[in-house]
Design a protein that fits this description.
about 150 residues, alpha/beta, Rossmann fold, two-stranded antiparallel sheet
Length: about 150
């Protein structure tokens, strides 16, 4: 069975994003984020869920490099699969369209039903559901939904 994939929104889901002087973005993670993501991505044989982790985020006009730097500076990049980073500014489509979620599942190489989208925005979760994704409104809830997908 193919490895499930969990896709995360960035701002207000993983932490608070802010733009500093000169437009430099930064992300202050919520305290529990790294622990939960480590547990989700750790292989099942080691007590984790074994999910591949990615990002689906609306990113304005940001480049892939600037978004990867944001994720790296927050300590997230080592936990994420580089093939599963979908930024609207790079993909040319945003989270208002199911096509972005379909593309994410295709990149993960799994059916949409083996994918999870975690985001605080109810409208975006509804679009992800239309694409066949499982959804969670909060990362703490996501761990339990991800566990169900893993079985």
């Amino acid at each position: 069975m193919a490895t499930p994939a969990s896709f995360l929104d960035i701002g207000e889901t993983l932490g608070m994003a802010t733009a500093g002087a000169g437009g430099q973005l930064s992300l202050e993670l919520f305290p529990f984020v790294l622990d939960i993501l480590r547990a989700m991505s750790k292989p099942a044989a080691q007590g984790g869920l074994g999910h591949r982790l990615g990002v689906i985020s609306n990113t304005g006009t940001e480049s892939a490099a600037s978004m990867q730097a944001l994720l790296a500076n927050a300590g997230l990049l080592p936990l994420l699969d580089s093939q599963l980073l979908l930024f609207s500014s790079v993909e040319g489509i945003d989270k208002s369209k199911p096509a972005l979620f379909v593309r994410a599942a295709q990149r993960a190489g799994v059916p949409a039903g083996r994918c999870l989208y975690v985001g605080e925005n109810a409208t975006e979760r509804a679009v992800a559901s239309q694409a066949g994704f499982n959804v969670a409104f909060h990362l703490l809830h996501a761990f339990h939904v991800a566990r169900a997908i893993t079985r």
